[in-house]
Specification:
138 residues; alpha+beta; 5-stranded mixed beta sheet; 17% strand; metal-binding; Cytidine deaminase; hydrolase
Length: 138
């Protein structure tokens, strides 16, 4: 993917991820995260982290967006890009559980853009780069 394509995705998805982070339920960590998932037909599906006092029951923004898309009938592998935003760190990175879900529900070359409060620290990855040698039945 060309750098200008990554930038266009970044510009389009970031406002949606910021809005999603504003909806985060994070009373325990006070660490809001938002995600914006671009579908194959150009729709944007938002997700935010939803915490629980039992942290293992917490759902990350990336998985919230993807699970919402799948529950709406969208097909795994049909998504164009994912942007993840966290305002309280210079840059965010998906956790291991999210990386494994990304491997199964996104195409391996799907762009994943990670953004924090430091624009210069923004990271651009593909799913394959986030989890090389991933466990997969595919």
């Amino acid at each position: 993917m060309r750098p200008e394509d990554w930038q266009a995705l970044h510009h389009r998805l970031l406002p949606h991820a910021i809005a999603a982070a504003d909806s985060a339920w994070c009373p325990h960590s006070e660490f809001p995260v938002g995600a914006a998932l671009l579908t194959s037909d150009g729709e944007i599906i938002r997700g935010c982290n939803v915490e629980n006092v039992s942290y293992g029951l917490t759902n990350c923004a990336e998985r919230s967006a993807l699970f919402s898309a799948i529950s709406q009938g969208l097909a795994p592998g049909s998504f164009k890009a994912l942007l993840v935003y966290a305002p309280r760190v210079p840059v965010i990175s998906p956790c291991g559980a999210c990386r494994q879900v990304l491997v199964e529900l996104l195409d391996q070359q799907c762009p994943v853009i990670c953004v924090g409060h430091d624009a210069a620290a923004t990271r651009y990855w593909t799913v394959e780069q986030l989890l090389p040698g991933a466990f997969s039945e595919f």
